[in-house]
Amino acid sequence: MAKIIYYMPAYRRIRHLHAEYVKKKAEELAEACGPGYKVTLQNRPSTQRPRAFVEAETPEARADDAKNSTLMKAVNQMRGK
Q1: In 10 A of CB 31, how many CB atoms?
Q2: Are 38 and 55 in contact (CB under 8 A)?
Q3: Residue of 40, 20, 14, 29 lying closest to 70 (CA atoms)
Q4: Exposed e or buried b for every residue in 41-75, given b needs 16+ CB within 10 A?
Q5: DSSP labels for 54-79?
Q6: pLDDT, tens digit, for every residue of 20-68?
Q7: What is the pLDDT of residue 30?
Q8: 2-29 in b/e burial notation, b at 16+ Cβ within 10 A?
C-alpha cells in the first residue's frame, strides 16, 4: 500500500482561497444582529483555514446579546442560506 504525503503549504493556500466568502458571511451575520457587532477575520497563512468571529463590541450590544441571545438567533436564521 502506498503512503500519501501531502504538500501542506499548497493545502493551506487552497483552504484559504475562500477567506473572502467567510468574511462576507460573517458580515451578513453582524448586520443581522444590528448595530454594535463587529467582525474579525483570522486569515494567517500558518493556520489550516480562515476563521471569522462576530462579537458584540459595544456595551449595549453585549447587554442585548446576553438578554436576547441575538447572535444565536441570527446564526439560526442564516442556516441553509
Answers
A1: 13
A2: yes
A3: 29
A4: eeeeeeeeebebebebeeeebeebbeeeebbeebe
A5: EEE-SHHHHHHHHHH-HHHHHHHHHT
A6: 999 999 999 999 999 999 999 998 877 888 999 999 999 999 999 999 9
A7: 96
A8: eeeeeeeeeeeeeebeebeebbebbbeb
Does 81 have pLDDT greater than 80?
Answer: no
Largest pairwise CA distance in the chain: 60
Q: What is the pLDDT of residue 33?
A: 94
Q: Is 30 helix (H, G, I), strand (E, B) or coil?
A: helix
Q: Residues 50, 18: contact at Cβ < 8 Å?
A: yes
**Cross-strand pairs, 41:** 52
Closest among 31, 74, 37 to 59, alpha carbons compared? 37
pTM: 0.81
How far does CA 12 lie from the centroid of its chain? 17
